[in-house]
Amino acid sequence: MARKLRVSYPGVAEHLIQRGNNRQVIFANDEDMQAYVAWLKQYAKQYQVAIHAWVLMTNHVHLLCTPSTATGISTMMHSLGRMYVLYFNRRYQRTGTLWEGRFKSCLIESEAYFMQVSR
User: What domains are defined for the chain?
Assistant: First the structure.
């Protein structure tokens, strides 16, 4: 069965959620979070995605962002995810997947929802 196509529009904010596989820990300490945020900033700039807010939990991530291009968020998340998995697997001497499938995304269609997500 084919995947549903992602809907992403330039200039429209999105709420993204990415979970660890089986809700496992993806950030074991502050260093892991700092590495993730550094790559998040790098790839957001590279793929022209404005990051408005983020929350890093031990087993998942929430991002509030707005792309400048239709593919900006997908390419940013793909690059970020691959880089972080390489880092995490090397650091903790493990192999295999870290993420629970693709990231989830939801368009922000109202100012009230934007404010709720940013809180």
Answer: 14-118 (3.30.70.1290)
